[in-house]
Structures are given as structure tokens and as C-alpha cells.
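Lab notebook, bench 4. The sequencing result for the construct came back, and we need a structural model before the next group meeting so we can plan mutations. Quick request posted to the team channel:

Model the 3D structure of this chain.
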Amino acid sequence: MHPVKKIEIIANSFELGKILEGLHQSGVHGHAVIHNVSGRGLRGADTEDLDMTMLDNVYIIAFCMPDQIKPVVEHIKPILNKFGGTCYVSDVMEIRSLRCVASL
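Done. Here's the predicted structure in C-alpha cell form:
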């Protein structure tokens, strides 16, 4: 096990490309994206509206080494400040499996 940072971003899907490019430029090359995220935040409820797919929210999760988090924040913060959204960074532990011994 070793420590890594978990990055969670909830933002408008319209900005997904810019956010993913910011992660990539920061050296974070892996991520997962969940589309059609709805919920309730400080600005009220965000409901699903299937007719407005361009305005859907996305949930982005990525992991990076602790020394990569400063460039991530520098790239992502201006995007979120301009278009809205939230970003959470937390400390987590990664378990890497070096040997796969599963048999079928």
C-alpha cells in the first residue's frame, strides 16, 4: 500500500473536455467519468432533465501521487471558478497487485 490523492470533481458536462485536459496536463492520465449526476448542493437541487443533456452534470474521479496535486488544482480551479462545480481532494491508500494468481 502507498498513499495517493483522490480527486473528485462534480461539474457541468459542457466543461468535461477542459477538465480532463487539465488533469492530463497535470500528469494525471487515468480517470473515470460518470454522466447524468444529480443531487443537491449549496445552490439547491440539481435534477435530471433528459432533454437538456448539454447541461448534465458529470462526476470525475481520478487518483494521483501527492506531489501532483498542486498542478491539478492550478489547472482545475480556474475552470470551476468560471463555470461552477466542486472539487474534493482526499488522502487514500492504493493497493497494487503485482501478481495476478487467479485461475479460471
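The longest strand covers residues 2-12.
Will bring this to the meeting.
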